Structure formats: C-alpha cells, structure tokens
Amino acid sequence: MPTALRAAISVVMLAGFYLLGLAQLALVGWLLYEIWTHLHGAGAAKLSWLLIAAVGAVLAGLWRAIRAKPGDPDGLLVSPEQAPELWQQVRALAAEVGTRAPDEIRLVPEVNAAVSEDTKLLGLVGGTRRLYIGMPLLQTFSVDQMRSVLAHELGHYSGSHTRLSAVAYRGRVAMHETLDRVGRWNVFGWVFKAYGWLYQLVSSAVARRQELEADLASVRVAGVDAAVSSMRELPVVGAAWGFYMNRYIGYGWELGYAPDDVFGGFSQLYRARADELAELREQEPDDETSRWDSHPAIGDRIAAMRAAPRTAHAVDGRPATVLLPAVEAAGLALQREVVDFGSRTVLPWADFTAASMTLVAQNRADRVFRSVARLTGAPSAGLAELFGLVQAGRLGELAAEFFPESTRREAAARFAGPMDDLIELAAVRSGQARWQHSWSAPARLVDRDGEPVDFSEIAKLAVAPETLDEARRRLAERGVQVETVTVVQTRATGQGAEVLGAMPNVKVDGAEHADLILLSKGFVLVPAPKSTDDGDKRVAALLGAVSPAELAARYRYLPFEEISTVRIDREVPVNATLTLHDGRTVGIQERWTADKMGKSDDLFREMLTELRDKRDR
C-alpha cells in the first residue's frame, strides 16, 4: 500500500472519530430541542441532564485527545563524538536503505530498537528523527546482528512509516481518552467502541505490513543470515533480561535494596548463562499471531526473510559493544538517566545479593515466628521459642498450619525444611555464614572460607524432642547462636505478594463500601464510594500506581495467616464472613451492580473455599 494512501486512511479514520463526536453533539442538541418543545418541568430536566452527561463524557475525552502531545524523548543521548563507529554504521546503513539518517541516537533500557519522527502537517512534513537502541542488545548482539536491527529500523524511515507516528499517536490518544470516560451503559459510547475496534483492526494490519517491509530492508542491507540470526536472538535476549530483572534485581528491589550497576550485571549474567541460553536458541520461534497484533509472528518473519533474494555480505562477528566505546560507563550513565532508586540502599552486587537474601530469609522466619507467638501467647518469638515448642512436643500444632494436608506428626517431620531455613538465618546472624553471589547459579550459603554449608541434617534433629539437644550441641560447635534470630516484623506485610484480581465496590460488614484487591498473600480493602460507577477504572488506576506491598501497608490488610475460619453464606453473589485469630469478624458481600474485572469474582470464591477447607482440616 503506498505511503500516501496509508496517510490518507489514518487521517480519514482519525477525522471520522472526531466527526462522530460532532454528529452526536448535533443529535443531542436536536433531542434537547424536542424535549423542551414537548415536555416541561422536572421530567424534561432529568432527560436533558442524562443526555448532557452522556455526550459530555465523550466530548471531554475528545477535547483531551485534541490537546494531547507525545511526551519528551526517553533514554540517554549518544553523540557522534561519544560513539563515532556507531554513528558511522548508522549513517552508512541509512544511505544503503535510501533514507535520511536520524538526528539523534538514544540508549534505552529495553530489549528493543525503535525509531520516531517529529512530523508536521499530519505527517506530510518530516522533522527530528530519533533512533532508540536497547542497551541489552548492544551488550549481547554481534555487529552483524546489530546492523540487521538498525537496518530494519531505518527501513521504517525509508518506507515513511514514521511520518504517520504523530497521526497514529493522536488516534490512539483519542480512542483511549474517549473510551476511558464512557460508562458501560452510555449509548453514545457504543458507537465509539465499535469505531475503536475498527481503527485498531486497520492500524494493526498496516503495522504488520510495515514490519515486513522493514524486514526486507534489513535483509537487503545486512544479509539474510544476519537478519534471521538477529530475529532468533531477540526472544533469547528478552527471556534472559526478564529472568535477570525478576530473579536478580526484583526481589531485592522490593525489599529496599538496589545494585550499583544494573546494566553491567546483565552483561555478566548473559555470558555466565551461555549453556542455558543455547538451549533456548534451539527452540522453534513462535508462529502464532492474531489480527490484533502489531507485529507478525517471528516464525512468519523468518520465513519471509529466507524467501528474499540472497546477496553476498561481509561477516562481522565482533561483539556490538565495539560500536560504543566505554560501554560500562555508558551503562552507568544510562542508569543515572532512567533508573530511579528512590530511598533504596544501593550496594555492590555481592553485598546486594547477600543483603537481599538475608532479608528474604528474615521475612520467611517472621512468618513462622508470628505463628509461634500466637500459639504460645507470647508478645514476640524467635528460634529459641520455636525450640521450646519442639521440646514441649507441640511442634505438630504449629506445623499443621503450614502443612494442613498432613497429620500433626507428619507435619512436624516435614517442618525440617522450614527449620533448615531458620538455622541458615541463625548462621548468618551469628557471623558464621554468608550468601555468596553467582551469575551462573542461584546464590548459595558459604562459611567464612567460602565453602558451602549444609544444615539439613541438624534441621532434621531439631524437629523432634528426643534429638533437639543433639541439634543444639552441633549448632554450638559451629558457632551458631540460636538467640540471634528473632522476629522483626510482628505484623504480616504484603512484601513479595502479587495482585491476582480485584472486585470493585464490595460491601464490608453490611455497611462500608470498599474495593477488594486479591493478593497472593491476603485481601486488601480500599475505601470506595457507595456508587458502583467506574469502579473498574478506579481500581485499574490504583493498581497501576501502587505496588502490592504499598497497598497492604496503606489500606486495611487481611493476610491469610491471620484468618482462622471462613464461612461462605452464599456463593453467587458471594457473601462470606472471615473470622480472625483475635476474634474479630469481617463480612464481605459482592454487589450485583458492581463492575466486573475479568473473572475475579470466581477467583475470590475459589480462594475463600481453599481457605475454608484448609482451616477445617
């Protein structure tokens, strides 16, 4: 499809969206005239107000869309003086694909590359061009693979794809702002929703065609082998980046720590996990797609690349980092530009891992110690008090809470696993062990000489009254002081929890109104207005701005560990009563008129049933 025709379609469809608003405004004006011509008094006023409110929500969204502008460019600006070879490659590739080179190159913290252009007159006049390069790509790709990626992005310029970016952006904003303000029962919004469906369908089809055109530019300039290689490597790098962010940074980040070199750490992990990444490369690329996807499936793109004419290209297998001198310094500069550490404690990687693992272990220990305190009636508890329960033959009572499917005797034996974790924490607190960082494997517990330590046999001794003294003796021989481990958080928190669902506008204790957030560790009750209108939007905005841990800290939190019994009085709509260990009760009732968020109501019933069954064992 020619560029001019694409532009015409985008402009016409966007104009059509605004014309719908004007048409509806005219319709409402005519209806208001007819109402006041034939009716008078309160009835006419009510009907008029309903019409004005309905069309007003639509027009407010359109007005915001008209005034909307793209935000400031992201990432770290890289000048030609800072990366001469990178700029040389980009300019040479731009010439080969037959387009003007970008005016700016920016590094971004994503496994992606992209281009943009600040255009005028609905894309008919070009403007400032920006090329965005993901730092993880530079750290992992070869020069050949990077050339292929860059040629693809520059191919969007040569195809004038970026000329439509301003129009496409304004169209997306118009859809979002308008439909976000339209209620479920607003008949004026139904037309806009149908139009938005059509616009997304057309724009997605155009985007997929543009990606295939850019792929052909990549093949022509960088070669089939480089293009296919980069396409197959992208999901590998993406998987490695996700693993790195979740398993190496995420857990410590939530606990208040941050590593001092975010991007440098990823480079080290990628090299250390070579064998695992090689297995990922052997997997066949995804070949599934839908009409709503903006990109064709990777398998389809590779097939199209291989079908393109082959031409000879010089091979450059050097790491792409040669294009960016002092890549480590660039990573730190990008970190300063895009990473907000907030109030977190920034540590070198070895200390970050040690501190994070220790705090994870402490949080797990606190969960056990809170139950010990509740069972013994003590204000607080630690490992010493837990040993006291074992000595008294009462460990089964405690362990049954953690292994409800087992008998008390079986649960006590199975508690050797949690006991092992507690003893490891005691060894760390006693200065006899530490967590050792590793890029190739999970962190491991080592002694002062760096040798791995194992307390599993002692843990097995520590869960039985007749062998507890032997466990104490062995711990003392190794310098592990039981008294060093005590509870830190006497109340349960939402740290480490995930949001599983949400139910807007439930009734609490028959009178209060709240939005119910379903976490993996408990329920959060957020005060809500009595009206059920726009509850889903309100909750979605809250979940997008506040972490699960913050939700639990800020609002009323009902952790699962504090719930002693669950009574389900009605299944649909759900009406349940939770009894807490301290004797308080909390009634939660679903409302028929409340907004639905996915299948959260079904999930809530499942969670309540599971809690009830566990407590009844």
TrEMBL record:
GO terms for biological process: proteolysis. Residues 81-307 form the Peptidase M48 domain. It is a multi-pass membrane protein. The keyword Transmembrane helix applies. One of its GO terms (cellular component) is plasma membrane. The keyword NADP does not apply. It is found in: Cell membrane. Keywords: Cell membrane, Hydrolase, Membrane, Metal-binding, Metalloprotease, Protease, Transmembrane, Transmembrane helix, Zinc. Pfam families: Peptidase_M48 (PF01435). The chain crosses the membrane at residues 7-32, 44-63. Its cofactor is Zn(2+). One of its GO terms (molecular function) is metal ion binding. PANTHER family: PROTEASE HTPX. This is Zn-dependent protease with chaperone function.
